[in-house]
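To: structure subgroup
Subject: Chain for Friday's discussion

All,

I'm putting the inputs and outputs inline so they're searchable in the archive.
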Amino acid sequence: MFQRGKVGLFPHPTRMPSKRSVKPIENAENAIAYYPGCSLESTAPEFNQSTRAIAEALGLSFIEPDGWVCCGSSPAHKSDPEAAIRLPMENLALIEKSGFKEVTMPCAACFNRHKTAQYEIHQHEGLKSKMDAVLGYEYQDHVQVTTLTETIFNHVSADDLKEKVKRPLKGLKVVCYYGCLLTRPPQVTGAEHPENPTDMDELMTALGAEVKDWSYKTACCGASHSAVRPDIVVNLSGNIVRHARETGADAIVVSCPLCHLNLDARQLQMNIDDPMPILYFTQLMAIALGLPEKSAMLKKNLVDPRPLLGKYFD
């Protein structure tokens, strides 16, 4: 992780958005707020760079709000339930005050925590008023929180995407792995098919890849147990990789930094003879859209995907 530049040594100090003066961003109503979250600026730079690259290629206007803070991820709601709501609300208020109507969140954990905050303030009497008082702002709930795949399909049709493909991923066999947080619980995420999502499958098909059907697309990888119970992660993630191989897939496609970390970084501990590339769907999109190899940042993946994908580059 250190060798690939995926671990930062020093934090980035910041003030809470509620303690700062926020000015509306010009033309924000016609753009999409881009919330990268902590992972995309630390352990998942390849997800961040490939996301920004494909957004530009697809004509999507992403603007990162200045001063966003960590959503709290998994630790906050286990140790401080109030902070687990307050931190996402800080971001949602910042985004709303900046003038955005939609925010895209590539990280599954960030997406889930912000959707949970929106859900909770309507489920518990007095919670919204409490949050408004803490924020010093009456949140209007005008911000639509979407996953990156939702954002793409909301603004670019599958047919339009196919027309933009320059290097079809013909011959590449993949399975799409969604993990726990993109779709569940459905009353929070709004997922129509929480056990059998298909967004990434449709994206990969549009790019020309052969998508294999399997029953592990929403199985847990071990998530944040990676730090305290790596044995659990090695077991659960190992099952996912082995079953992906059994389908005949060449690679696993993901959209969650924590899932990527568990599946990519721990294969040496899984006793897997033939390590399997774990790719963000945006990395494969960058390749298929004909963007430069550096846009996909394939060198950041711990299981090197370049031998598999080299044929798609000139």
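Points worth raising on Friday:
Residues 81-98 form the longest helix (18 residues).
The domain at 157-312 is CATH 3.40.50.11810 (Rossmann fold).

D.
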